[in-house]
Amino acid sequence: MNKIFKYALLGAVVLGLSACSEDQLNTTPTDSMSGETLLANATNALVPLNGIYRSMYTPGWTTTGNIAQTFGISAYNLMAEVMGDDMIMGAMGSGWFWYDAVYNMKSFYTRSTFRSYDLWKAYYTWIANANYIIAAQSTMAGDAKAVDYVMGQAYAIRAYSYFMLEQSFARNYANHKTEPGVPLYTGPTFTSTTGQPRATNQEVYDQINSDINKAVELLQGTSQQDVSHIGYAVALGLKARIALTEQDWTTAADAAVKAIAASGKEILPVKDFAGMNSVKASNVMWGAKIVTDQAGKYASLFAMVDTLYHGSRAPKQINLDLYNHMSRTDTRRAWWDPNSKYSTGGYEQDKFHFSNIATWEGDYVWMRVEEMYLIAAEAYCHAGDDAQARQYLSALMAKRDPNFDASQYSGSSLPTLTSDQFTGAYAHSLLNEIILQRRIELWGEAGRIYDIRRLEQGFRRTSAQGFPTGELLTTRPTDNPESYMWVLTIPQAEFDGNANMNASTDQNPVGDLK
């Protein structure tokens, strides 16, 4: 069996089969646990399910070091933000996330303390947990809707995990469908399980689509019991994200519109969700409530970005070109402070804050309804329906800038280089404006490099944008959409334990180009 899976099963996979959201993570080997009891009925099955969600924000279980930058979903979103062109790290600080920002992680694939190992183990752990739950579908007792609620989430977790693995360890789907993706596992795995070879991107996305469609089907008609759970509306939101990446504009628009309706959430004025730290805000679709005894302390999103902690040593700032695109009446300007003492190049962020620094508290927001409006707007625009695209963009901007007028924009032209989005040549492109508003609205949240990849763009960082010299990457091919810079290397441990994967033929390029 491949080694990463072995670690997952004997170390952290079972946190899903033994831990509830209120307890410490249990590391008892799965093979010795009474999985039949835990998965015997829908009520008991919420225990392993909540364990999976708990691990999505708990630091330290995926790796033996660098724990400060391994706090689950929010860490991986922050990683993908600093890899792009909108979030500037004003200084190296203690080094956390700096090596992501300067693309100096790939050569560390032999170590269990760096990004490749961390991501691989986390997502495959969640997949392995989901597979155990899905395998019990035919035998699980309970009310039919209660069983559907459990199973729908398991399918959604598996779809989400494979989707994020593809975005981290493979090239973009649209242009590289036949290229290697990641290994597929759809059943329970044990220490004796044979490791799988890399499937093609097409095969992985076929599984992702099958899983997310099954999740949507099962979750329809159920009620989201907790904001940390993937309910019906969140599953639709994930489906919209996946379809957007696949450039399936019709499906993306349809799923986003349905997600808006099903969520019952509303676009909030900026002042009503200040700090981005509460899942109680009425625009939050999915997130994690962080209570005092579960706070990651220094290993947390807010520790990394809030200037009350590491954000003072490694300030997180906005690209000046992006900031200057906002009009003077755009209320989102409040998310950045030009006069902050930490604004050394770009302007220091004021968007994310601890809700209580004394107790290290601050909730994690993983999906807001505003994102669904932006997905709908973008997908409609790609599909040539400018009227619908303007409608959804205008709905968002009505809560952001009273002077915004969508009628001046039309068409779907978009430059190859992201820095060219600010030039006059694209000043009236509707798609260009939608993407710029997405960059502003979801700054720090959506994982900027994922958008650059799926839109087949390249970027160039400049001093004029506010980037320090150490982050400019002037000799690196960030302007090449076909670059391997943002494709992570597969951890060596996978090759050491998987007879069906060969490091000489299956490893992603360590360099920037193949």
UniProtKB/TrEMBL annotation:
One of its GO terms (cellular component) is cell outer membrane. Pfam families: SusD-like_3, SusD_RagB. The keyword Chaperone does not apply. Residues 1-21 form the signal peptide. It comes from the Bacteria. It is found in: Cell outer membrane. Residues 334-509 form the RagB/SusD domain. Residues 108-244 form the SusD-like N-terminal domain. Keywords: Cell outer membrane, Membrane, Signal. InterPro entries: SusD-like_N, SusD_RagB_dom, TPR-like_helical_dom_sf. Its main location: membrane. Belongs to the SusD family. This is RagB/SusD family nutrient uptake outer membrane protein. It comes from Sodaliphilus pleomorphus. The lineage of its organism: Bacteria, Pseudomonadati, Bacteroidota, Bacteroidia, Bacteroidales.
